[in-house]
Design goal:
Largest sheet: 5 strands, mixed
CATH architecture: 3-Layer(aba) Sandwich
Strand content: 35-45%
Helix content: 25-40%
Order of helices and strands: HEEEHHEE
CATH class: Alpha Beta
Strand order of the largest sheet: 1-2-3-4-5
Distance between the termini: 31 Å
Shape: globular
CATH topology: Trna Endonuclease, Chain: A, domain 1
Number of helices: 3
Number of domains: 1
Length: about 130
């Protein structure tokens, strides 16, 4: 079991990664419409609009590991939870039900000292 300090550090790292991912999207013309949409055991880190498309974004942030490890951390279980959260989001926001939607993954990789190494945006990364 994680200690409260470790849990707070992970949450802080995740929040930082989500801010980096949101800035990345906004710099590319996306509009952030929601953050941390939670329902049951599932969460959407970011919900954005890319012109006429709704984009659900799973953000994976890793510090001090091997390059590419953040992208590999999206397990089949996690993907299923993101798909379920996206369905619930659309159900609770009927105004977006007619928009085409996709699920992207943004990975944020940091050096051990916290320096940003890379941001990778993988469009349409999770599919039913």
């Amino acid at each position: 079991m994680s200690s409260p300090r470790r849990t707070a550090e992970r949450r802080s790292l995740g929040d930082f990664g989500e801010r980096v991912a949101a800035a990345h999207l906004e710099a590319r013309g996306y509009a952030i419409v929601d953050r941390k949409f939670r329902v049951a055991e599932a969460e959407l880190d970011l919900v954005a609009r890319d012109r006429d498309q709704l984009v659900f974004v799973e953000v994976r942030t890793r510090r001090g590991g091997e390059r590419g490890m953040a992208a590999l951390s999206v397990s089949a279980t996690k993907a299923a939870k993101v798909l379920q959260a996206a369905a619930w989001y659309i159900e609770r926001h009927p105004e977006v039900a007619d928009l085409p939607a996709r699920i992207d993954v943004i990975t944020v990789e940091l050096a051990r000292n916290g320096r940003l190494l890379s941001v990778e945006h993988i469009e349409d990364a999770i599919r039913p």
